[in-house]
Amino acid sequence: MSHMQYETRYTLAPGGIDARAMNARIAALDEDLGSDRRSADADPLEGLAAQGRAVGRVGIVGASGFGIGLALRVLDAGIPVTLFELERASLAKGIALARSSANGRDGRMALLAATVNFHHLKDCDLIVDAAPSDTAGKQKLFRRLDQVAKPGAVLATQASHAGVARIARYTRRAGEVLGLHMGSVSMTGETWQIVPGKDTSRTSLGTLVALIWRLRQEAEVCDPCYAFIDVKTPAQPWNIDQALD
């Protein structure tokens, strides 16, 4: 593979799994694609990453441990970050944590803009929700992000499949909403898991994949169209394309 190792994880979906229906669907995909199928050795995310938009600035909502950890990784790649917190005291604690974790790399801190002004997120190409809150809080946050974020900006949440779909309904840009989990440690390093909703666009998914590679991390995508089982299966490009139709 030319990029990081990639695999799709399947997990049991609510309501169980219709094995015959799933097998029939896979067989139909195999037949339809025929000679157009790419080699199993090809990186299935190459095409998607090429369709993604460039990320010039990342917005992070919440100076939590997750938010600061994400900010430092993005800053290490030379990408400016806008860190938003509702309370100045929480923002100050987050900045102090970031500085103490910088390990002498003060240059990257110059790329960090900390703010309590929500509208300062308007120039971000990707905005990640790192704030701990309940369903009502997520609803309010993503409605505000929908109003403030520029067209085409990707909005990421820590939610699972069902949560992504629900959060996407709070916006008028369901194609730009997806889930993101980071920090899962594998044999080859840290894996970042992308959780697309049923309406997430190829462009949005490709944008996040390309960014993860730029941060020199591994990407793992959960396929929302297949019921999940508790094994890992090598991802195939035809599965990804079908999942995002």
Low-confidence stretches: 1-18, 32-41, 225-245
What structural class do the secondary elements suggest?
alpha/beta
Globally, the shape reads globular
Write out the strand line-up for the largest beta sheet, numbering strands in chain order.
4-3-2-5-6-7-8-9-1-10
Main sheet properties: 10 strands, mixed
Radius of gyration over C-alpha positions, nearest whole angstrom: 18 Å
Mean pLDDT: 77
Helix count equals: 9
Beta-strand percent range:
15-25%
State the end-to-end distance.
25 Å
Give helix % range.
25-40%
Question: Helix and strand succession?
Answer: EHHEHEHHEEHEHEEHEEH
Strand element count: 10
Protein name: 3-hydroxyacyl-CoA dehydrogenase NAD-binding domain-containing protein
Keywords: Isomerase, Lyase, Multifunctional enzyme
Domain 3-hydroxyacyl-CoA dehydrogenase NAD binding: 58-218
Pfam families: 3HCDH_N
Q: Overview of this structure, please?
A:
Pfam families: 3HCDH_N. It comes from Massilia aerilata. Keywords: Isomerase, Lyase, Multifunctional enzyme. The protein is α/β, with parallel strands linked by helices and 245 residues long. It has a domain of 109 residues. Helices cover 38% and strands 20% of the residues. It contains 9 helices and 10 strands. Strands 4-3-2-5-6-7-8-9-1-10 form a 10-stranded mixed beta sheet, with helices on both faces. Strand 2, helix 3 and strand 3 form a beta-alpha-beta unit. Helix 3 crosses helix 4. The longest helix has 15 residues.
Describe how the helices and strands are arranged:
Elements: E1 7-9, H1 19-33, H2 46-51, E2 58-61, H3 65-76, E3 81-84, H4 88-100, H5 106-109, E4 112-115, E5 126-129, H6 135-148, E6 154-157, H7 161-168, E7 177-186, E8 189-196, H8 202-214, E9 218-222, E10 232-234, H9 237-243
Parallel strand pairs: 1-9, 2-3, 2-5, 3-4, 5-6, 6-7, 8-9
Antiparallel strand pairs: 1-10, 7-8
Helix pairs in contact: 3-4
